[in-house]
Amino acid sequence: MDFDFLIERFGEAGTTALGGLVLGVMFGVFAQKSQFCLRAAVVEFARGQIGPKVAIWLLTFAAAVGGTQALITYGALDISDSRMLASYGSLSGAIVGGLLFGAGMVLARGCGARLLVLAATGNLRALFSGLLFAAVAQASLRGVLAPVREGVVNAWLLHNDGGLELISFLGLGSYTGIYLGVACFAIAIYFGIRNRLGFWAWLGALGVGSMVVGGWWFTYHLSYQTFDPTQVESMTFTGPSADTLMYFLLPSGAELDFDVGLVPGVFLGSFMAALLSRNLKLQGFKDGSSMVRYILGAVFMGMGGMLAGGCAVGAGLTGGSAFSITAWVALAAMWAGAAATDALVDREWGADRRSLWSRYVRFPNHSAPAN
Known about the structure:
Elements: H1 4-34, H2 38-46, H3 52-73, E1 88-90, H4 91-107, H5 112-120, H6 124-142, H7 146-153, E2 157-159, H8 166-169, H9 176-194, H10 199-223, H11 238-249, H12 258-276, H13 288-308, H14 314-321, H15 325-346, H16 356-360
Antiparallel strand pairs: 1-2
Helix pairs in contact: 1-10, 1-12, 2-3, 2-15, 3-9, 3-10, 3-14, 4-13, 4-15, 5-6, 5-12, 6-7, 6-11, 6-13, 7-13, 11-12, 14-15
């Protein structure tokens, strides 16, 4: 596709940000309507069910993997120069970061993308957690937490001269990605039918996955039409949340790019979808204990996402669709961290049928803020 008209009108940086904005709006609409959420899927699965939340996640994952691999196989996309398939990857970062992120999204009741979608519908808990998530991500990338991140990331590096794509690493055939995408679709469709998903669940889940494919396609085709280097990338929310926060906080603003357009786009799309469906509703914190868990969750996700090289969407969908080795390791660690945290924090234990969190993290009634 020729983007010359947009480049002449908005400039290279403006066109890149505009693409992120448009794809973000569509992502926000689809995510809000489908209620896509990795945390909900993990909790549902960990509690012995393969219900609608798991089915929606499987459909989204299948759309991202199948679409991306089809474009790669038939020569319409090349993502070999993306950050996720760079000259080295951190297995230590993927494992530690994935575990932290998984724990954090259970504590905060949503990953970075889900918090952004919820914040747009009036959820003040999600808004607070999302801002803290972005701040911690920025501190982990360039601030006081950067030395900690670098120490963990450098502990176990995987070098393979740029060959960090799982299919090539295992020496499998060029059509393996498509076969796996078809297999994922078959499984996802089976559970979607079994759980009697509604129209918007089907459309929204497939739409979220398709936006990952759209992000890859847009940035790839734009990359060879711009004079300045354009990063080939797609949906992720850890780094973009930090960059967007800095864009609005710095006096001169940060540089416009795909990420800076993406985050406001998702917020706007989710807000419009919630407004049209009359789902806007102000919600606050229940009590002090609730606020503590959201703070811990946001901190864990901010650091974990930077260590893992992506969030539940960045590693789970974008990295998964690229068959990045470290992304798949990070995704597995997120599932493990989330399942373990749900078991320890939210399930009921013992004769009094309370969770461990409610047993040991409590505040006096007089200190609890009003709802």
